[in-house]
Amino acid sequence: MCVRTLLAACLAVLSPLAVGHDTATGFQKPATAPVAEATSIELPMELLASRPLIRVKINGQGPFGFLLDPEATHNVIDAKLVETLKLVPLKFTDGTSARLVDLEIGKSALTNVAYEPRDLSRVVPELGPSGQPRGVLSLSAWPDQLVTLDYTKWRVTIAPGALPDPDAKAIFALGQTPQLFVALSIGERTFRCHIDPLYPGGLLLPADSVLEFPLAEPARDDGAMYTRRGLTAIRLARVETEVTVGDFAFKAPQVQFGGSGNDALLGWQWLADFSLTYDVTHGRVRLDQPKRSTAVR
Predict the structure, then answer these.
(1) How far apart are CA 99 and CA 116, in angstroms?
(2) Are residues 207 and 104 both part of a single domain?
């Protein structure tokens, strides 16, 4: 397994805004209602060091690679790209200003999208400057729509709709952050597990829990990975105990052990057989296994 990293500086709430016309100046000024097309679209999903990435045009220029971060709280465009594209804040007659751009994402056209310029030169630490994303995009770009990251098809789908109420089996409640935490059981112990599509690893349990479970083999050193908290040394072992998350069960899975604390972390290596559908407006996520793969990890 390669040493990987996670987003060390993470970011991003998209605020696509409707516009209201200022009759005194002719300028268009942000209103309060989001602007997003209520039609279904499908986009190719790439992986940048095991993190989901899509292509985005900014004011008709590009496309540029943007990380798609379900936990983003602001949209971000790399500060150097802001300078290259000569993006400047719009100033209004009431003295206020806003950083707004128009985005094209596949067939989705988003107008007056708020963003923040930031240095993204080390967002993916294992890659050099030329390999970094040019921005980070939040799922709130598509309000009142469902955004699905389907790892089995390498696609991102945006469609109108809403998810049913959480049932803790396949549909889970989002936190206010918005982070996705679910109950993960292994043996007689239940962890609060953070499902993070930007974590490039698999299932990471606290380092000291390696002593709690029967192992099919001794745990071995396996380098290090970046979580959102920083670089974590990893030990790897296959456990002889079933792991369950809601309706999903994993027989004798391979598990990473590392870091302190009490929570588990689940990322890309375990999500490869799944799709995640986010209903950000209502704070819900559906976990699905389209192929219903029973392969042992």
Answers:
(1) 7
(2) no
- DSSP conformation class of 4: B
Q: How far apart are CA 143 and CA 253, in angstroms?
A: 36
Domain count, the chain: 2
Q: Where are the alpha helices (DSSP H) in 59-183?
A: 79-84
- Lowest average pLDDT, out of 8-17, 167-176, 198-207, 252-261, goes to 8-17
What is the spatial distance between Cα 110 and Cα 95, in angstroms, rounded to a whole number? 25
Same domain as 205, residue 93: no
User: Does residue 141 form part of some domain?
Assistant: yes
Whether residue 72 is found in the same domain as residue 178? no
Domain assignment of residue 235, yes or no: yes
Whether residue 136 is found in the same domain as residue 19: yes
Q: How many C-beta neighbours within 10 Å does residue 24 have?
A: 7
- Shared domain check, 78 and 185: no
- Residue 44 shares a structural domain with residue 123: yes
Contact, 10 vs 198, CB < 8 A? yes
Tokens standing for residue 220: 């071995």
pTM recorded for the entire structure: 0.83
What are the residues facing 241 on neighbouring strands? none
Q: Say how far apart CA 196 and CA 194 lie, in whole Å.
A: 6
- DSSP state, residue 257: E
DSSP 13: B
In eight-state DSSP terms, residue 259 is: S
Distance between alpha carbon 125 and the CA centroid of its chain, in Å?
17
Range of the domain at 35: 15-145
pLDDT tens digits for 103-134? 999 888 999 999 999 999 999 988 988 899 99
